[in-house]
Design goal:
7 helices
């Protein structure tokens, strides 16, 4: 009996692990090599945009340089967080505040790096390709807009919070009843 329970438990855990890995490509959510949305969306539309091999190579180079910089910035951020944790443990609050300022600076560098990446990627494209990207992004947004919260379609008569008929929100006179 004990042996059977252990086997069932192992099989259950293995199937859960397998299904999670399979659902996310086995390596995580972002498995296509393009982690940043600026490069990802451009590469997603590469055929529609008619990108040349040279443009694709330039975008890939810019993305690789950005990823290298982000690795360094995120490592710096993690080190500062560790230092701050130690300072807080030792009740060194002035030092912790200085580390907060450093964290803010690193976060600003990360955000500016993302802006720079988008700018560099867009410099590779022609004006016509940029217009086409904007069209495709808007089209994609419109296609997603009917999905509701987090990409999930709402269910039920009121399409949210329970199975009500949705009239309380539609008719202000019925609110609170």
């Amino acid at each position: 009996m004990k042996r059977t329970m252990i086997i069932v438990l192992i099989m259950t855990m293995a199937s859960i692990a397998f299904s999670f890995g399979h659902r996310h490509g086995g390596k995580g959510y972002k498995n296509d090599g393009y982690r940043n949305s600026a490069c990802k969306s451009i590469m997603l539309y590469s055929k529609d945009l008619g990108l040349s091999e040279d443009q694709i190579a330039k975008i890939q180079k810019v993305e690789t340089e950005h990823q290298k910089a982000m690795i360094d910035l995120k490592a710096e951020k993690d080190k500062i967080k560790l230092e701050k944790r130690d300072a807080m443990k030792e009740s060194e609050y002035d030092a912790a505040k200085k580390l907060n300022a450093k964290l803010t600076d690193v976060n600003e560098k990360i955000m500016n790096s993302k802006v720079d990446l988008k700018n560099e990627v867009e410099k590779v494209l022609t004006k016509e390709q940029l217009e086409k990207v904007k069209e495709l992004r808007n089209e994609r947004r419109l296609n997603r807009s009917d999905r509701g919260f987090n990409g999930c379609r709402m269910m039920g008569p009121g399409q949210g919070n329970g199975m009500g008929n949705g009239q309380r929100m539609a008719d202000p006179g019925l609110q609170g009843k």
